[in-house]
Amino acid sequence: MIIEVLKSKIHRVRVTQAELNYVGSITIDEDLIDAANMIPNEKVQVVNNNNGARFETYIIKGERGSGMICLNGSCARLAQVGDILIIMSYAHMPMDEARAYEPILVFPDDNNRLLK
């Protein structure tokens, strides 16, 4: 049996930008993408802690070290600059592998930068 499990999570990042007139996606600082073992174009689920919105989109690589979290296209309507998001990716794996898998959890600071 193959099941879907949490692969990685970027916990509590702040929206820095929203661009409605753009092809849909979420732009994420490359440092955060790398730390979470995510990749550009990967499908992610995004949860807005401020308003409860949940949506799926894909990752665009943002400038490394910028702290950028930008919602693009229609998902820009689901958050405002300053809202707090949780960004999650999932993986499909056999049950035995899933039981042993430990997701990667990233907890950035208030400026969306990695804690040192």
Structure notes:
The chain is mainly beta and 116 residues long. It has one domain: Barwin-like endoglucanases. It has 2 helices and 8 strands. It has an 8-stranded mixed sheet with strand order 2-6-3-5-4-7-1-8. The protein is globular and about 40 Å long. The termini are far apart.
Could you estimate the helical fraction of the residues in percent?
A: 10-25%
The parts where pLDDT drops under 50 for at least 5 residues are: none
Average pLDDT confidence is: 96
Number of helices: 2
Number of domains: 1
Q: Radius of gyration, rounded?
A: 14 Å
Computed structural class: mainly beta
Do you know the CATH topology?
Barwin-like endoglucanases
What does the largest sheet look like?
A: 8 strands, mixed
Q: So what's the CATH class?
A: Mainly Beta
Strand fraction band? over 45%
Major beta sheet, strand line-up: 2-6-3-5-4-7-1-8
Q: What is the subunit organization of this protein?
A: single chain
- Give the H and E element order: EEEHEEEEHE
The span between the termini is: 39 Å
Label the CATH architecture.
Beta Barrel
